[in-house]
């Protein structure tokens, strides 16, 4: 019996363990941290062996195949041992994709991938059987085991792409590439770009790569490193023959001389970046022969994802906005760009090698006060102290919201858009966003 070891007992790990067992592997799950109670119960119920708060080296190195959770970095001692022993390591999407013949839409990028994945799924599910997985929702492996949909929309991080070998989406999307997670890529932007482009590495000319043609990082990389896929760019600034572009507030999508038009006047999501997300999602829908009317209606009634520029409440004519999902500078750039009123900005967390320069013009123009919410706020203070009259520090969400309440006047926004990871004070960005919403509701 082949031995499958699953490193990490979270959503992707448990899904892989269940699928692995069903496919005849002897499965062992090992997590250096604690495994959540709900996952333990699944493992016990399915008679899968597991351990927590430790890695039993002998047991792990006896594996024929190892599935590594995306959160575990290459520099972890256990991973180094595994690599030295030459054991094959895969990610969940690589493992699960071997057991499905579904059409796969894979979406990666530094920002916009959750919104684009959710929007694409929202359109496709009107007419197709389709699962939503990857970095979002139930694990891909578990869905392959339980539902085996004919189509999947997968939100895929660079960490998941680092451990693929044969994984190949029929349609790949790269929303954009800006410096992020550089701490995991030896602070080399090139390594991170290369990691994102792995999404297309196994594609053939029968597959499609949809990408932002306005993103120089992407277009320069494609010039130097051509891919085999059929290219479908989208752009807000220039006409494209095949792909999508914007003209007179109308998205025009052309595939093999077949053109459809989508007006943007009634898009449910506002902002330039959301026009791009809509272009990418509609291009997929057009490729998969979804009716034009269905695409248009879906774009008009889709209301976005939690923790992404999510309006929380209006109190005393001040709008509170939860953008906790902005875990890098570029995501916060979009948030500040879309602010049309004076803004009290709550920022900070675990810095991943951030360069705040691209935010300067927006901060000068729109931000009236800054609240730094992190264990170490030195870099934020250095960058922004001279730009605003008020800049304060705190390590508690409730306090941050109370300070914002005092600083904001009628007609202002209070924006939580941290530009950083959440792990210094919170479990994850969802926990941070929920604490923000709770604190606002308790004002």
Automatic annotation (TrEMBL):
<comment type="function">
    <text>Cell wall formation. Catalyzes the addition of glutamate to the nucleotide precursor UDP-N-acetylmuramoyl-L-alanine (UMA).</text>
</comment>
<dbReference type="GO" id="GO:0016874">
    <property type="term" value="F:ligase activity"/>
</dbReference>
<keyword id="KW-0133">Cell shape</keyword>
<feature type="domain" description="Mur ligase C-terminal">
    <location>
        <begin position="307"/>
        <end position="420"/>
    </location>
</feature>
<dbReference type="Pfam" id="PF21377">
    <property type="entry name" value="MurD_N"/>
</dbReference>
<keyword id="KW-0436">Ligase</keyword>
<protein>
    <recommendedName>
        <fullName>UDP-N-acetylmuramoylalanine--D-glutamate ligase</fullName>
        <ecNumber>6.3.2.9</ecNumber>
    </recommendedName>
</protein>
<feature type="binding site">
    <location>
        <begin position="109"/>
        <end position="115"/>
    </location>
    <ligand>
        <name>ATP</name>
    </ligand>
</feature>
<dbReference type="InterPro" id="IPR036615">
    <property type="entry name" value="Mur_ligase_C_dom_sf"/>
</dbReference>
<keyword id="KW-0131">Cell cycle</keyword>
<keyword id="KW-0067">ATP-binding</keyword>
<comment type="similarity">
    <text>Belongs to the MurCDEF family.</text>
</comment>
<keyword id="KW-0573">Peptidoglycan synthesis</keyword>
<dbReference type="Pfam" id="PF08245">
    <property type="entry name" value="Mur_ligase_M"/>
</dbReference>
<dbReference type="Pfam" id="PF02875">
    <property type="entry name" value="Mur_ligase_C"/>
</dbReference>
<dbReference type="InterPro" id="IPR005762">
    <property type="entry name" value="MurD"/>
</dbReference>
<dbReference type="InterPro" id="IPR036565">
    <property type="entry name" value="Mur-like_cat_sf"/>
</dbReference>
<keyword id="KW-0132">Cell division</keyword>
<feature type="domain" description="Mur ligase central">
    <location>
        <begin position="107"/>
        <end position="285"/>
    </location>
</feature>
<dbReference type="InterPro" id="IPR004101">
    <property type="entry name" value="Mur_ligase_C"/>
</dbReference>
<keyword id="KW-0963">Cytoplasm</keyword>
<comment type="pathway">
    <text>Cell wall biogenesis; peptidoglycan biosynthesis.</text>
</comment>
<keyword id="KW-0547">Nucleotide-binding</keyword>
<keyword id="KW-0961">Cell wall biogenesis/degradation</keyword>
<dbReference type="InterPro" id="IPR013221">
    <property type="entry name" value="Mur_ligase_cen"/>
</dbReference>
């Amino acid at each position: 019996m082949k031995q499958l070891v699953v490193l990490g007992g979270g959503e992707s790990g448990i899904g892989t363990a269940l699928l692995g067992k069903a496919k005849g592997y002897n499965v062992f799950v090992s997590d250096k941290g604690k495994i959540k109670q709900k996952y333990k119960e699944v493992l016990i119920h399915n008679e899968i062996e597991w351990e927590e708060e430790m890695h039993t080296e002998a047991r792990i190195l006896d594996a024929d195949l190892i599935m590594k959770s995306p959160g575990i970095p290459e520099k972890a001692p256990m991973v180094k041992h595994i690599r030295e022993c030459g054991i094959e390591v895969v990610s969940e999407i690589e493992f699960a994709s071997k057991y499905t013949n579904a059409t796969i839409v894979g979406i990666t990028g530094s920002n916009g991938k959750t919104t684009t994945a959710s929007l694409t799924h929202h359109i496709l599910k009107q007419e197709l059987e389709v699962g939503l997985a990857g970095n979002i929702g139930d694990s891909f492996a578990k869905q392959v085991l339980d539902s085996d949909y004919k189509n999947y929309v997968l939100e895929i991080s660079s960490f998941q792409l680092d451990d693929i070998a044969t994984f190949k989406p029929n349609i790949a999307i790269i929303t954009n590439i800006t410096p992020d997670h550089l701490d995991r890529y030896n602070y080399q932007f090139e390594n991170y770009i290369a990691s994102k482009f792995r999404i297309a590495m196994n594609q053939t000319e029968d597959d499609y790569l949809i990408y932002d043609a306005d993103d120089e990082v992407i277009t320069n990389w494609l010039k130097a490193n051509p891919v085999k896929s059929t290219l479908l760019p989208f752009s807000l600034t220039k006409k494209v023959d095949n792909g999508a572009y914007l003209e007179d507030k109308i998205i025009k999508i052309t595939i093999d001389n077949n053109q459809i038009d989508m007006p943007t006047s009634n898009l449910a999501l506002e902002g330039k970046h959301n026009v791009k997300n809509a272009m990418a999602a509609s291009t997929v829908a057009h490729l998969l022969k979804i009716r034009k009317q269905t695409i248009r209606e879906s774009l008009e009634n889709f209301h976005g994802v939690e923790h992404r520029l999510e309006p929380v409440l209006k109190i005393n004519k001040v709008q509170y906005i939860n953008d906790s999902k902005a875990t890098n500078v570029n995501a916060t750039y979009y948030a500040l760009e879309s602010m049309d009123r004076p803004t009290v900005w709550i920022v900070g967390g675990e810095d991943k090698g951030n360069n705040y320069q691209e935010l300067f013009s927006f901060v000068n123009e729109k931000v009236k006060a800054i609240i730094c919410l992190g264990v170490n706020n030195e870099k934020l203070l250095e960058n922004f102290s001279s730009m605003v009259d008020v800049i304060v520090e705190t390590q508690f969400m409730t306090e941050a919201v109370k300070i914002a309440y005092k600083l904001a006047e009628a007609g202002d926004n209070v924006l939580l858009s941290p530009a950083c990871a959440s792990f210094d004070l919170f479990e994850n960005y969802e926990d941070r966003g929920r604490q923000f919403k709770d604190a606002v509701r308790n004002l």
